[in-house]
Design goal:
about 325 residues; lytic endotransglycosylase activity; cell wall biogenesis/degradation; two-stranded antiparallel sheet; elongated; 13 helices; Dna Ligase, domain 1; 6 strands; 2 domains; mainly alpha
């Protein structure tokens, strides 16, 4: 009987030691139930995720978490993005989330996109259905005329995958407002509506070969508007064309497209289009606000993307012969 009691006591001690050791290795790092976000950057080369989790107090013990990673998640990928944790989670709970689906996804929107392009990127990153993508194009981005196009700022975002497209659209508009706010008083001082400035900025962005061209193109656009000329900007026709058969946007246009009856057709109709044709960044907005003084009314880019402008149409024809 005595031996049995000693054995039971020894076993109890061993179990206690194992539980205590397990608690040290795999127990919660804290008691807080508050949800916090742990971020794995897009460029994660050189990042020690375990060390970062420990430094931010999401795990209690580095060795214990590395053991779990090695034994149970060796073949699983830790994806860039945001993960929602609380400090009272056990190590295996953290492991399950960090090797699963992200809670927030990185989305990079490239230079001056139209809203449909933004929607495609979002649908891919956030796992949207076709129905949700259709709502982005036709409902969520159509709440106000001034938000139809031009305010889905090109940048890198970390977006919650559990938000619907209306919430994501609001995030984009809020970010645009942050970027655009420093320019508002400047546009007012020049008696330019911000919506007008944004339309011109979108044309500049799509037409420029680079930032260095933007203020000159801005000056030429303003000159054409001041003289009542049709803008005759190909980018507006690329906008009416929409998506090409190969799935790309902003493709080549032909004569038939230039004859298409659309309020965006800057060959048929004078003045600016009803909305911007894409969402420009601050460089193009700055150029719309501060055009270069020039007498030029025409321009082209050669094969090296160098810009050449002309005051008269005859000079423009000579530039075409010379550079194209």
């Amino acid at each position: 009987m005595k031996r049995i009691l000693i054995a039971l006591f020894t076993l109890s001690v061993l179990i206690f030691i194992l539980l205590a050791y397990g608690w040290v290795l795999f127990g919660p790092a804290g008691t807080s139930k508050e949800i916090e976000v742990f971020i794995v950057p897009q460029e994660k080369d050189g990042l020690d995720v375990t060390e970062s989790l420990y430094d931010q107090s999401f795990i209690k013990n580095e060795k214990g978490f590395r053991f779990l990673l090695d034994k149970f998640a060796r073949d699983k990928e830790i994806k860039p993005g945001g993960y929602r944790f609380s400090k009272n989670m056990y190590a295996w709970q953290v492991l399950g989330k960090i090797t699963g689906r992200v809670d927030l996804a990185w989305v990079t929107i490239s230079f001056c996109p139209r809203k449909e392009q933004v929607g495609e990127k979002l649908a891919s990153a956030l796992g949207w259905s076709q129905d949700e993508l259709d709502k982005w194009n036709n409902v969520y981005t159509n709440t106000k005329p001034e938000y139809f196009e031009g305010v889905y700022y090109p940048d890198t975002y970390l977006l919650p995958v559990d938000e619907h497209g209306g919430q994501i659209a609001a995030r984009f508009i809020n970010h645009f407002n942050e970027k655009f706010t420093p320019f508002i008083d400047k546009f007012i001082a020049k008696n330019i509506k911000w919506t007008t400035g944004l339309k011109i900025a979108s044309l500049i962005a799509r037409e420029a070969g680079g930032v260095e061209d933007m203020k000159l193109i801005s000056g030429i656009i303003w000159n054409r508007l001041d003289q009542g000329m049709a803008l005759q900007i190909d980018a507006t026709m690329q906008y009416t064309l929409g998506k090409n058969e190969d799935g790309s946007w902003w493709g080549d246009i032909d004569l038939a497209e230039k004859q298409k009856d659309s309020p965006y057709n800057s060959y048929l109709y004078k003045g600016l289009s009803p909305t911007p044709i894409c969402s420009p960044n601050v460089d193009a907005i700055e150029a719309a606000l501060n055009p270069e003084e020039t007498d030029c009314l025409f321009y082209l880019h050669d094969n090296a993307k160098n810009i050449h402008c002309a005051v008269t149409y005859e000079e423009h024809l000579e530039n075409i012969k010379k550079y194209l």
